Amino acid sequence: MLRYIVRRLLILIPIVIGISFIVFAILSFTPGDPVMNIVGNGADEATYEAKREELGLNDPFLVRYINYMKNVFKGDLGKSWNYDTKVSGELGRTIPKTLILAITSVGLMLLIGMPIGIISAVKQYSIWDNLSMAAMLVLTSMPLFWLGLMLMLQFAVNIKWFPAAFPTEGLGTIKHWILPTVTCMASMMAALVRTTRSTMLEVIRSDYIRTAQAKGATERSVITRHALRNALLPVVTLVGLNFGLLMGGALVTEKVFGIYGVGYLLVNAVTSRDVPLVMGSILFVATCIGVVNLFVDVLYVYIDPRLRSEYVKIKIKSSKKLQI
Amino acid sequence: MGEKILEIENLHVKYKTDESDIYAVNGLNLCLNKGETLGLVGETGAGKTTAALSILKLLPKKIGFITEGSVKLGDIDIINATDADMRLIRGDMVSMIFQDPMTSLNPILRIGEQIAEVLQIHKKDMSKQQIEERVDEILNLVGISKDRKNDYPHQFSGGMKQRVIIAIGLACEPDLLLADEPTTALDVTIQAQVLEMMQELKDKLNTSMILITHDLGVVAQICDRVAIMYAGQIIEIGNIEDIFEGEHHHPYTIGLFGSIPNMNEESKRLKPIAGMMPDPSELPVGCSFKERCASCMEICKAENPEEAYLDTHMIKCHLFDRKNESKTMS
Ligand SMILES: Nc1ncnc2c1ncn2[C@@H]1O[C@H](COP(=O)(O)OP(=O)(O)O)[C@@H](O)[C@H]1O
Ligand code: SF4
Ligand SMILES: [Mg+2]
């Protein structure tokens, strides 16, 4: 297993390099002049040229890319063109917020969404099932920014349970995180509930569930011990996908609540064509998604023993290759 | 004969589906003595599985309903038993072995765990250690090395999986085993092995068994009695001798056996009969076999035949209704 994880991590390196190259190319070849953004419209020719030279923009594209990557491998993500601060510093300021939001919202989603999905499946077509399905439909059709604004208006402005503004420095308190977490969670909840419900329904009808019932197992034990783990694979996939996406920032939530996370940073960097900042963020996001995917795959193998032998097959195949 | 372990009277089971109501079992009568093996044969769709599931009240929830009749396990009235009562019976007093071994085991639990589970549920006084020992013992009984108890179902062949399922069924030494086509999904060579093993274990544990099967050879070999089911009813039942050597038979049985059944002939599978079983959502008036019966009479079209007994042999057909008082059956 360890060998498999290491191999997957090694494969991740060329993938991230590939992504960085593509993004670097897009940034370099889109029209518009990043230098003009920095020095301002009124700057004279000499200042402009000096800045251009300083940023290395007079070098050919490939040279620029290779220089950039050389620094990255040395551990230097460069300086932001706009703020003149270190990219690593900017990321260090934003990543914790993005991580907190991702973990709390995914955690809360699992805590609430899984039980709803399970109960809906077990009590299919009951009032509870119909109600929760209707609620999920409402949730999916609601624009996220609107929900965020409404929550803020109601709970922060009207009844003042929670603060409306997020502090510019630091990570805030628990109270600051509740509304953003709920908003962010709402966007993913419906998919989770529906996936849990439909896979549970499928599993509940399978033969081995009937075998468990024929043993005299209680309904609770049939659900938790036999059905749930079998229904987990699609849920794990979905949660992994959502978590990976959230690493790129929950843009709408961040904007509505004024949380300066990775999403915010990335959008600002792209609009101002701040190449080092965009590249730094992209490297972070791509690595995160890669690692989350790996984590999901490892979890799969842990959940489903059938995949363990698949993995053994891979091992046999690769060892055969070595013999040849 | 010995004490009765199972008594089913006038059982009716209905499936409610979106399109229609399906009458799967229509007035089934059946008795089983302790230690006895009953073969239950009949075409696909005759209601064999439904009848077996009814005994354990495992009919699919909100779809399958027992609408009439009584089922008694010894003194226990199954129809009025609560869910909690049924859970005590399932796996302990009565076990069921399902048709498809490939899908009947939980793919993510070790086979040892799956056997141990039924012991954990019913043998509360057994320690962990004792349960482990019992699992080893029962694996040994069904011919699987105990070293394999930590393996998962996908690591076993179909025949081995069915052995594991039989181990689960017999772990608590039940009084009654319901085996629903336990070998249909297996290779012919494995079928004989598994059946032989089942019979050995059953004799050893003095378990009664209802064996649902298509294989008349198997029936002749290991059953004490045979019941033939058609459209949700038992239309003929009797000892092995009654069915395989007796002179009189229900026209359906004759069709099923391809000729007058004979124990000495090579074992053969059931023969298909021209025509189809009546649509279970619209039961016909009169005898349910009338459409396919060569001996069909006027009365058959109007009246459902009564059960006609002679000693151990019962035939449900107008041919034998009144005549059997004058005619002797052997
Ligand atoms: N879950 C179900 N829902 C609806 N109809 C069913 C269901 N299970 C069985 N039936 C119907 O009940 C009848 C008897 O089926 P079954 O008991 O499986 O017969 P057998 O085991 O003899 O092949 C068939 O017509 C079948 O289509
Ligand atoms: S009752 Fe009539 S139709 Fe039915 S099997 Fe007997 S002879 Fe045939
Ligand atoms: Mg069947």
Report on this model:
The complex is a heterodimer of chains A (324) and B (330). Chain A has 15 helices and no strands. By secondary structure, chain A is mostly helical. Chain A has a single domain (87-323), classed as MetI-like (MetI-like fold), CATH 1.10.3720.10. The longest helix of chain A is centred in the N-terminal third of the chain and has 36 residues, at 87-122. Chain A is globular, with a radius of gyration of 25 Å. With 330 residues, chain B is α/β, with parallel strands linked by helices. Helices cover 31% and strands 24% of the residues of chain B. Chain B is built from 11 helices and 12 strands. In chain B, strand 1 and strand 2 (21-33) form a beta hairpin. In chain B, helix 4 crosses helix 5. In chain B, 46% of the residues are buried. At the A-B interface, helix 9, helix 10 and helix 15 of A face helix 2 and helix 4 of B. Bound molecules: adenosine-5'-diphosphate, iron/sulfur cluster and magnesium ion. Magnesium ion binds at residues 48-49, 180 of chain B. Residues 48-49, 180 of chain B line the site of magnesium ion.
Features:
heterodimer, A: mainly alpha, 15 helices, 79% helix, 0% strand, B: 330 residues, eight-stranded mixed sheet, four-stranded antiparallel sheet, globular, binds adenosine-5'-diphosphate, binds iron/sulfur cluster, ATP binding (chain B), ATP hydrolysis activity (chain B), nucleotide-binding (chain B), ABC transporter ATP-binding protein (chain B), AAA+_ATPase (chain B)
